[in-house]
Amino acid sequence: MAYSPIGQHKSELDTPALLIDMDTLEKNITTITARCKGAGVDWRPHTKGHKSPVIAQKCIDAGAMGVTCAKLGEAEVMAAAGVRDILIANQVVGAQKVSRLVNLRHMSDVMVAVDDPAHIDAIGEAAGSIGVSVRVMVEVNVGMNRSGVDPGAPVAELARYAADADGVDFGGIMGYEGHAMGMPDDKKEAECKRCMGLLAESVAAVKAASLDVPIVSAGGTGTLAYTPDLDGVTEIQAGGGVMMDTYYAKKLGAKGLHYALTVLASVVSHREPERAVIDAGRKTVHGDYVLPEALDDDIEVVQLNAEHGHLRLGKNARDLKVGDKIEMVSGYSDMTVFLHDVIYGIRDDRVEAVLDVAARGRLA
Ligand SMILES: Cc1ncc(COP(=O)(O)O)c(C=O)c1O
Hints:
Elements: E1 17-21, H1 22-39, E2 42-43, H2 53-62, E3 67-69, H3 72-80, E4 85-88, H4 95-104, E5 109-114, H5 117-129, E6 134-139, H6 153-164, E7 168-174, H7 185-208, E8 215-218, E9 235-236, H8 246-250, E10 261-272, E11 275-278, E12 293-294, E13 299-304, E14 309-313, E15 325-329, E16 342-347, E17 350-356
Parallel strand pairs: 1-16, 2-9, 3-4, 4-5, 5-6, 6-7, 7-8, 8-9
Antiparallel strand pairs: 1-10, 10-11, 10-15, 11-14, 12-15, 13-14, 16-17
């Protein structure tokens, strides 16, 4: 029989390995579900971070109404796994991708963000040629200055264009307040209000053009404390918070969620009492925004090279030997998971499942 680590204690896994504590993951999913439900909004969790249909399905089982994806390739993976309601929160451009998008419509109720009539023309034509219709969401620039049309009248104009186009249905609007995520709490609340106010103003403009706006999609883990409560928002895209990491906790002020995603590494060199080196560097765990955090007392991850991690060992650190294993909370999980083929699902310290990072590499 093929080798399987299922049932093993996590400390027996070869390293480096990416782990997710299933109880904590499920608790985070329950927390975000309850947060959205309490605010009377739907939850459409982003899958760009975990890239795992199993985690997506856990969110849906808990009450999420579908998923958000960053890339068409991710959406294809989610659709193949049976997820029906999918928002691609980016523009899909180019004949090959547009053809894949409209064909995906046969497997799922996929929606896509647009901010230009050219997007609508291309999707409408391709959809019409195979007899489907694709919902489009007009993306609004609420201040991040990434994609999106300006709020208000330009949104109504593009919504009308979509509504009148063949092969396309106008599904609603989306505005990601990404620039607010890292603000301090007092500023963040005000900025979320301002951004959602711009979406509300856009909804009013679209309604004035005699169109319904069934969906108003926004939000991320970093604004979960505010955006769900703001008038007009119908769904929240927060996703990475199900895994949690030091970036969400320390830089984005995420509260009430617990660290689920960790990296297991081995000590490979320990030449001096106060420092040791592990087999997990930047190719294993992201640490550019904030370093990973060792779960051990008095052991600190102080630097990452490509393949080495540097530990500072305090006076109360355990007596590490070469070959000993160290578990650390991931830096930004979004930029860690895609470095791995699998995530080991751990419950009560034993391997319960091996989760395929199925959308890994699906960048197109
Ligand atoms: C469009 C969009 N929505 C939502 C999010 C928030 O995702 P998360 O909650 O995983 O940080 C992001 C993050 O980059 C995003 O680009």
